[in-house]
Amino acid sequence: MADNMTWTSEQKQVIDLRDRSLLVSAAAGSGKTAVLVQRIIERICDESHPVDIDRLLVVTFTNAAAGEMRERVQAAIAKRVEENPDNAHLRRQEVLAGHAHITTIDSFCLSVLREHFQEIELDPGFRIADEGELKLLQADVLEALLEEEYEQASESFIHFMEAYAPGKDDERAVQLILQLYGFAVANPRPEDWLNHCLESYGAESMETLEKQPWMCTMTEQLRTILSETAALYKRMIAVCKDEGGMESYESVLLSEQQMIEYASEASKYDELRERVNLIRFGSKPRKKKTDSFSEDKAKRVWDMREQAKKQIKSLSEDYFADDDERLLQKQHLAGVQVKELVRLTHAFLLRYSAAKRKKNLVDFGDLEHLALNVLSEKTPDGEKPTLVAAQYRESFEEIMIDEYQDSNYVQELILTSISRTDPPNLFMVGDVKQSIYRFRLARPELFMEKYETYTKEESTHQKIELHQNFRSRKSVLDSVNFFFYQLMHKAVGNVEYDKDAALYPGLVYEPCDTHPTGGATELMLLDLEDVTEDSDDVVKPDNDDTQAVYSSREWEAAMIAEKIREITDPESGLYIWDKEQKTYRLTEYRDIAILLRTVSGWAEELISVLLSKGISASADTGSGYFSALEVQTILNLLEIIDNPLQDIPLAAVMHSPIGHFSSEELAVIRAEEPPSQCKHLYDAATSFAQKYSDPADAKNKEGCHELAGRLRTFFNQLETYRRKSRYLLLRELLVYVLEDSGYYEFISAMPGAATRKANLDMLLERAGAFEKTSYQGVFQFVRYINRLKKYSVDYASAQELAQNQVRVMSIHKSKGLEFPVCFVAGLGKSFNKQDVNASMLFSVDYGIATDAIDPTLRTKESTVMKQAMRSQLMIENLGEELRVLYVAMTRAREKLYLTGAKDHLFDYLEKKIHETDKTARELSYSQLTMAGSFLDWITAAACKHKSFKAIYEQLGINVPFDGVCYKDESPLSVFLVTKSSLSMQTSLWRAEEAMKRTALENWKKETTDETSKNLIESRFLVRYDDSPLSKLQAAFTVSELKTRHEEEAFAASGSDIREPAAQLIKQETEVSEHEMQETLLPDEELLPEFLQQKDKMSGAARGTLYHWLFEHFDFTGDLRAQLSSFMQQELISTEERKRIRIADFDYFVQTPLGKKVKQAQEDGTYHREMPFILGVPAKEMIENDKNLSEKDENEYVSVQGVIDAWIDGEDYITLIDFKTDRKPEDMTDEEFKELLKKRYIVQLSYYKRALMQMTKRPVKEACIYAVSIGQTIFC
Predict the structure, then answer these.
(1) Is residue 763 within 8 Å of 631, Cβ to Cβ?
(2) What local confidence, expressed as pLDDT, does residue 1093 receive?
């Protein structure tokens, strides 16, 4: 953001305040990143106390955010330098900016460990493990742990496994251990937290139990529920008084209200239990003939009373059914299982840590915990910063934390350990309303704790609110405020949405009088019950429940599609402000985003409907990679390369384009032999191939001989792959398979070829990454992939990006983004309550809760602690959902749409209207906590708005609007949509499309303009010639031309000069122990030969390594010293060093060519690695073709390559090419030299040609130095 920008007074405070810890609560769109960057710039440019930029630590949430901030800071510094070129301090900052500590917390922790590994005795060669590798390692450790436990067969372990893994495998128990492990490592001291989880199960009395945090929280929640219920009675009594004649009802209600209010005043659990169990409900009064009140009013009152009665009964059953003795007994029974789980998790934690340490691996959680151990030590008095932390404290003038609301306890302790206290120097910015990473165990409570204790006034711990939104129109912000004033409160979500938290417009949009712009937020509700059997729409639900769910999504998609067509209509569409063009323009597809709570199961249907309506759309699902056909095919192939006795993968590959076997052929093969003789498809297929190998044996079975021949070809090919898998690296194997099978070329001709090829390229990358892990081979890779699938670790499938598409994405993906037009869709989707209904519940604050299981009596009962934790987790989940909804609605710049679908919509709305207190500003606690979807909240809040008045009238409800929400002027429009109306709109659109198509198909008849006809025909009837030039690619590499020459030579004479894949420097060559000792780092040890790993480096890799050394060696100096330097700089690895024979290079220096190179280096006339691009007449490439036209003869193709080395002599240039080809054992040196000449003559000729063109000097010597024989070959 520009230095001359006008900042608000609050933003100016954030930029200028010093010598304090500052918490900035930055609302959505408030420009927090711009303010943070400006604060950095002002700190380094401060005239009274300038700070070097490398003395600021800026911690961001993602690498992308860190990169963006670094770029902004560097650009701002560059601008200041341009304005003040003579300022030495600014020029210094420009240099230091490249080393600025603008980083993620993980990267910072990594730097701490790299610099201070010795403090915790960490091997400095550690590697960050791949996610899939960690899954495999966890599985291996758990398998070994459980196997050992089964061998010992302790009573507590057996009972635990019977209770929580009663099926055929231990998967449920494994998941519980991993889940508890995840919660443990989210705490600074995982083992202490695990021990803390047991405290609630050691209580011997109710007095001790009532002191537990979960018990205190539960008591407060129960009192809140009782108070809410008493308030509901007040509403009922008010209705009775207004109606008149309902004294009998009023008397019953008043008595019950008093009992409930008395219970809500209890301060302890035992008092609550006693008072709630004393509540008694009276009978419904009968209406007398003299009573004049309305039956409808009476029914409404009694329905509300039944709701309250149901609430009290639920509390009594769930929380107050047991006396003290039984409650403690059940708690102890539950504790037996919890203790066993904690024991197993603790054992897993230690073994897993040891396994990672043995392999020298760390994960991202380890980075934080190990860095914490470097920076803080645990003492009896709590955490104490170490001497290393003190050094960092002196190094950093200020620590700035972006997205502070998403920090966790470990990160908090790390950063506070290196921060100062006098004066404090923490700068924290974030928005707790946008904390949506609870599933990653983020702790927004850290933000709220400071928010509630920091002062607005001047102090050493101060907070500043940034209210103004510089993104959205006032209409969008007003509607967001309208909803969240009602929805977001301290009791649910831990955030109070008040005037300090509300959004205020900071950006004024230019007026537009010619086109519609902005406008009210639209709430679009679809009634799913308006079914017309002959509806001609895209979807019609049937009786199948699953299809009905899908149909509801597609119906909602159809409703969204109609609205998109409306706002993009050229004549009447919505216009938006184009920030780049500085003008208004019509909304395009690329301006629209559809945001979903989850894209899984939704995006596919939504996009399908949009495409069917002619609307281009794409979804960023972040998944779908493993389900891509081409990826599945190759993974199945790898499975049968590892083990062909797998029927499903084998059948899939045989049926794929690799095998080319039809379903009918597979059926014939399988049916030939009974399963008793051929258990597997592999056995049946190989038996079939052998049985019908002789045509005579197949004479009575048409086609069997030909089928048997194809089977033999297929299995020979498979056997080749299996054989190569034993010595090829995984990536090399995959490359070979894709080329040999032709599958890569096949998918190149399929629809969506670019996406499919990108998916396979990604698989090659995954294979390459896997080779760097501690696991090797096809079997382990298949296991690795299967483990990723099992734990839902998927990758986004490659996508072909279009410029003008509607974007469909999850709300989490949209965080930090903005869109001119937003649809927040799928509001009717139910909240995911899976975690609160699990057999065991976990909480960072309260530990573990489970049922009381008696293994002797074989009984299971819920405990009060489990009920309390379920309620608390539900509230925390709902708070997260509220924040997710807030993030979604604040993404819109100019127009916001809220869409949802519901069965029996009118009944649903009527119920919501009656449940809602329309005089209150906020929704009640029960309405917030009993909600099952976003739609429940949205409709309950919207029904207080004046836009709902028409719906009241349509439902025949005569409820006078009153209250602050009705007087709210926030622009909101509500539309009820039916399926029949959507069907009619779709039919009209189809008719229009059909008319357009007819007009296009009959353009010759309809068009009378001969010029237009001729133009269309000339473009559509163009023919491409089939000249030889059309078959020639436009660019070649020198290596491609060399291969082309080899193939032509082989075709012409049968002389094979081609280079086999393995014909490179001999792989089994090992350096001597003496030579290794000369160059290895001092701390490295030599292993005896029988313990050394086998050579994993291919010949091609070794050749590349030798070329790199020829490029970087200074032959005038000590080669061994240089090699040691390369290793210390991590330019080459220890494994690579083991494959280098330094004698090869010593020998080169002693040859005449080597001496010449050495002298040239001293003279400065030796040049290396020079890339070139050369224009070559196309006729040279196809000189044997007589059909070249004159035009073709003047065409050129590009030839590109890299020249290894050349010496710029006084009279001429000497060209040098280093070759690492291995000499065949049955060939003499002279024969080998002739072979190399023939093989590389074309390559060298292009090098000479390029050199002469670039230097304008003659190249009289061109030579090859053959490393394997140590000789120079002049060509």
Answers:
(1) yes
(2) 42
Instruction: Please state, in angstroms and as integers, the Cα–Cα distance from residue 1237 to each residue in 1054, 1103, 1242, following that order.
Output: 17, 18, 9
- Report the chain's terminal Cα–Cα distance, integer Å: 61
Angle between helices 131-152 and 155-164 (to 10 degrees): 130
Give whichever of 113-117, 923-927, 980-984, 1168-1172 has the largest mean pLDDT.
Answer: 113-117
Instruction: Report the distance separating Cα 627 and Cα 625, nearest Å.
Output: 5
Residue 26: CATH number of its domain: 3.40.50.300
The band of 531, judged by pLDDT with boundaries at 50, 70 and 90, is: very low
Nearest to 174 by CA among 290, 19, 344, 297: 344
Under a CB-based contact definition with an 8 Å cutoff, are residues 898 and 482 in contact? no
Omega cis (within 30) before 423: yes
- What residues does 899 pair with on adjacent strands? 524
Q: Using CA atoms, how far apart are residues 707 and 713, in angstroms rounded to an integer?
A: 10
Residues 273 and 341 occupy one common structural domain = no
Q: What is the DSSP letter of 624?
A: B
Q: Is residue 203 part of a domain?
A: no
Taking residues 929-951, report their average pLDDT: 92
Per-residue pLDDT, 1255: 84
Do 657 and 768 fall within a single domain? yes
pLDDT averaged over every residue in the chain: 85
Measured at the CA of 261, the angle between CA 258 and CA 263, to 5 degrees, comes to 110
Claim to verify: residue 682 and residue 741 sit in the same structural domain:
yes
- How many angstroms separate the Cα of 461 from the Cα of each of 10, 446, 453, 458, 1105? 16, 14, 8, 8, 57
Radius of gyration of the chain (CA): 38
β-strands 1166-1177, 1196-1208: how paired? Answer: antiparallel
Q: What are the residues facing 58 on neighbouring strands?
A: 102, 400
Q: Does residue 728 share a domain with residue 752?
A: yes
Confidence of residue 1189 (pLDDT cuts 50, 70, 90): low
Q: Return the SS3 of 1118.
A: coil
Amino acid letter at 179?
Answer: Q
Averaged pLDDT, 709-714: 90
**CA neighbor of 1174 nearest in space, from 1264, 1274, 1275, 1245:** 1245
Convert the pLDDT of each residue in 320-329 to its tens digit.
Answer: 999 999 999 9
pLDDT number for residue 940: 94
Distance CA 652, CA 383 (A): 58
Supply the pLDDT for residue 328: 93
Quickly tell me which residue has 């938290």 as its tokens: 501
Nearest-angstrom CA–CA distance, 261 and 1075: 88
Could you tell me which residues are beta bridge partners of residue 848?
842
Measured over the CA atoms of residue 45, residue 49, residue 54 and residue 58, the dihedral's sign is negative
Q: What is the pLDDT of residues 663-694, one digit of tens each?
A: 888 888 888 888 778 888 988 888 888 888 77
Contacts of 355 (CB under 8 A, 6+ apart): 137, 140, 141
Contact 707, 688 (CB under 8 A): yes
**Sheet hosting strand 56-60, strand order edge to edge:** 101-104, 56-60, 398-401, 426-430, 21-26, 461-466
Strands 1259-1266 and 1271-1274: antiparallel
| 16-59 residue pLDDT tens | 999 999 999 999 999 999 999 999 999 999 888 999 999 999 99
pLDDT computed for residue 336 by the predictor:
95
Number of domains in the chain: 6
Closest CA to 880 of 836, 942, 924: 836
Q: Which CATH number characterizes residue 153's domain?
A: 1.10.274.50
Query: Cα separation of 936 and 830, whole Å?
Result: 10
Residues 712/718/721/723 CA torsion (nearest 10 deg)? -70
Domain residue limits at 51: 9-126+361-466
**Token pair for 1205:** 């080395």
pLDDT at 313: 93
pLDDT per residue as tens digits for the range 988-1040: 777 777 777 777 666 665 566 667 667 666 666 555 555 555 555 656 776 67
